[in-house]
Amino acid sequence: MTETNRNLLRFIDACPTAWHACADLASRLLAEGYAELNETEDWPVAPGGKYFVRRNGSSLIAFRIPEGAFPGFLMMAAHTDSPAFKLRGKPDAPAAGLYTRLSVERYGSMLCAPWLDRPLSAAGRVTVRENGKLVTKLVKIDRDLMVIPNLAIHMDRTANDGKKYDIKTDMLPLFGSEKAAGRMQQLAAEAAGVTEEDLVAADLYLYPRTPGVCFGADEEYIAAPRLDDLQCVFGCFEGFLSAKAGKNAPLLCVFDNEEVGSTTKQGANSDFLVDTLWRVCEALGRDLYRSIAASFMASADNAHAVHPNHPEYADSQDRPVMNGGIVIKHHANQKYTTDAVTEAVFAEICRRAGVPVQHYSNRADLRGGTTLGNISTAHVSVDSIDIGLAQLAMHSCYETAGAQDTDYLIRAARAYYESGFCHTAEGIEL
Ligand code: ZN
Fold this sequence. Notes:
Layout: H1 3-14, H2 18-31, E1 35-37, E2 50-55, E3 59-64, E4 73-79, E5 84-95, E6 99-107, E7 120-130, E8 133-140, H3 167-170, E9 174-177, H4 183-192, E10 199-208, E11 213-215, E12 221-224, H5 227-242, E13 249-255, H6 272-284, H7 288-293, E14 296-300, E15 303-304, E16 326-330, H8 340-353, E17 357-361, H9 373-376, E18 383-388, E19 390-392, E20 399-402, H10 405-418, E21 422-424, E22 427-429
Bound molecules: zinc ion.
């Protein structure tokens, strides 16, 4: 396994939720000398500085300010959340006097079947009473705690003929015998280091415990939970951190809640990015509008590779493959923001960096998904492109992607941030 993939799998394993992903990135940024800004305080942003800010603990924006004059911001975006089952407030659901199950609700749109018959645990954040204050803490109960059991084929002979999953019945995890009722609260309190009485509220999600692996005859592939979109978060972040100074201010945003439409206070469809740009420009005495007009956004979210067993779902022309490099996404109705200008900019940066690019369009009769780019640029109207890495089984709890592609994204992101992008009336310099 390459060092990049080892680090990617470590990151995915450490980050079962969006809060953990932001905490992991924040600790790396602090170690690299970035200063954390707080939205409730003044921002002492100055030339030559490195900063980051979190909102809700689950979205994060990091940026560096060049020493001298700079035209605008080179931005990348990815998302920290993945589809999962959220534990409900009163999580224990007794069954037939024999078992304790946990009550769950769906977050995002997942493939249900892969969640069955594999070890699961719970992670998220809790709010606790501590020294007279309400304090938020991350919890990750690092134990095999539950399984959502399938019904045996002998009891449902139609199980292989297309199964409809009823969340309130089929997807309740088995947590223990009838004696386990109430134990979830206790385990969450223990994980947070408080008594049960001091645990006031919780946002806890199930996560699969199956570790990520490289597989294939030549270990060509990587399989892991949450590749959509932690693979892009990781790749963009490594490229952002390692980029030498370019002409513009490099900025990376990772947003929560993409899987539920981004319309939350910390999602891409919020004012988090524009607020951040506004406050940075104000601190530097810059004109916000001119800065935005000179900026560029690359939104990175994984794309569908041609499926080995179902190639017919791919477009006849745009057929991305795993290990084929950066996928540029196209959509005539602008669910993906790519256009002839932005494609040319990013493809040229990749060409100069020796990173291959390929193209994705939905098969013309399929609706496809949405992503961050067009939502984010509705608030910050900049030239924008949608990119991603090719993967299989998107929204399974165990997805497959190319083992080489994360390196391609790191190299592309680094080259992008280091570029001399400058959009003038005469044309675009890189
Ligand atoms: Zn995604």
